[in-house]
Automatic annotation (TrEMBL):
The keyword Cell wall biogenesis/degradation applies. Residues 8-202 form the CobB/CobQ-like glutamine amidotransferase domain. Coiled coil: none annotated. The active site is at C95, H195. Pathway: Cell wall biogenesis; peptidoglycan biosynthesis. This is Lipid II isoglutaminyl synthase (glutamine-hydrolyzing) subunit GatD.
């Protein structure tokens, strides 16, 4: 944590990227930090702001194709997110954002857009939209709890050797229909197709990001109502 008194959580381009309440990921991070007595604030970065490289953790949400292109242009113009990841700041990128963080993505209109190459992946339109509940088992070290969320994307993502999948899919499509993996991880950068918001549904993933941000392993919080919600969602996803 750069500033020892307050954890600074970047909500990156929530004005154009934030479908399905993905901005809630920043709220979950703040709340789980506050519950441990760690002071935390959300820093909103919009299309009017350069992207700072000094924050402790960053989140980016999903978007429709046009909004996604605006965000890509902004992140290329102001490469603060890239610099932050280079020094190991945790980054969570959801859906359109996993595509933006790759080398390029092709929109459903067939146009290829250069990405910001923080993840080793490319995305092309699939024959059919992947939509519905997604359930997956984590592969990333330090994560043991089943991941649950909701996916809605036309793009199908293929990883190169520089990124590893986040999880193995047991229900739904994930990165690309038929591949049975979801997400991508390179260093401290995690991308996934899980909406939900992902961190509301997957508190262990939230604590993984927070622990990286504060530089020490945070103990779990005992929140039985969240466990119950998770059980319901996972059961619904597997039906
Ligand atoms: N526009 C992208 C796609 O359809 C991402 C969609 C999203 O973020 N929900 O693949």
């Amino acid at each position: 944590m750069a500033d020892t008194s307050t954890l600074r959580i970047g909500l990156v381009l929530g004005d154009v990227m934030g479908t399905y309440g993905d901005g809630g990921n920043a709220l979950v991070l703040r709340q789980r930090a506050l519950m441990r007595g760690i002071d935390a604030e959300i820093v909103q970065i919009t299309l009017d702001d350069p992207v700072p490289d000094s924050l402790d953790v960053y989140t980016l949400g999903g978007a429709e194709d046009y909004a996604q292109r605006l965000a890509t242009r902004h992140l290329l113009r102001y490469p603060g997110l890239q610099r932050a990841a280079e020094r190991g700041a945790p980054v969570l990128a959801i859906c359109a954002a996993i595509q933006v963080l790759g080398h390029w993505y092709e929109t459903s209109a067939g146009e290829r857009v250069e990405g910001i190459s923080m993840l080793d992946l490319t995305t092309s339109p699939q024959g059919k939209r992947s939509i519905g509940e997604l359930v997956a088992e984590p592969i990333l070290d330090g994560l043991t709890d089943t991941l649950t969320g909701f996916e809605n994307h036309r793009g199908g993502t293929v990883l190169g050797p520089g990124s590893k999948p986040l999880s193995r899919v047991s229900a739904g499509d994930g990165n690309k229909a038929g591949d049975r993996f979801d997400g991508a991880v390179t260093g401290s950068v995690i991308g996934t197709y899980l909406h939900g918001p992902a961190l509301a549904r997957n508190p262990q993933l939230a604590d993984h990001l927070l622990s990286q941000a504060v530089g020490s392993q945070l103990p779990p919080l005992d929140l039985p109502e969240i466990d119950r919600l998770r059980r319901e969602r996972i059961a619904a996803g597997r039906r």
